[in-house]
Amino acid sequence: MVEKVYRDGIIRDMTAEEQAKYDTLQIFANSPEQKLLKIKSIRLSKLKQTDWWVLRGEMTDEQRAWRQSLRDIPTTYSESDYDALLYRDEDEDEKLTHAVWSKP
Questions:
Q1: Quick check: 74 pLDDT over 80?
Q2: Contacts of 42 (CB under 8 A, 6+ apart)
Q3: E-state strands within 20-66
Q4: Does residue 53 contact residue 63 with C-beta atoms inside 8 Å?
Q5: Distance CA 20, CA 25 (A)
Q6: Which of 29, 40, 46, 81 is the most exposed place for a label (fewest CB within 10 A)?
Q7: What is the CA radius of gyration of the chain?
Q8: Does residue 70 contact residue 29 with C-beta atoms inside 8 Å?
Q9: Which positions ≥6 away from 95 have C-beta within 8 Å?
Q10: 100 in Cβ contact with 72 (< 8 Å)
């Protein structure tokens, strides 16, 4: 199926070159490398959201352990776990469902 492209106010079929590039990007979007990049981005966001715990200087052991578990994701989980880590609950505002993301 030839995809459409919108450029300069005109919708047209992609050229063969554009289609090949698009197909390559679509394949890469679901690659383990791309999934790991998404996971690392989510992890960074969660760590940034809780940096104030560290700055406050009074983190609980549970908070410390949770932040460490986030940092350990690349070594704790393998490619076979990436889909589970990225799974979002369709009924709950696309919330990530894996336990590693749940704050203490």
A1: yes
A2: 86, 96, 101
A3: none
A4: yes
A5: 9
A6: 29
A7: 19
A8: no
A9: 88, 89
A10: no
| CA pair distance 39, 61, nearest whole angstrom | 24
The owner of tokens 């940092």 is: 71
Q: Which pTM was predicted?
A: 0.71
Q: Give CA separation, 1 vs 30, 49, 91, in Å.
A: 19, 42, 32
- Token code pair at residue 58: 């009074």
End-to-end CA distance of the chain: 47
User: What are the extents of the domains in the chain?
Assistant: 1-30, 32-101
**CB-hemisphere CA count at 13 Å for 31?**
10
Task: Look over the chain and give the mean of its residue pLDDT values, rounded to a whole number.
Answer: 89
Which alpha helices (DSSP H) does 9-99 contain, by range?
16-29, 32-49, 51-56, 61-71, 73-76, 82-86
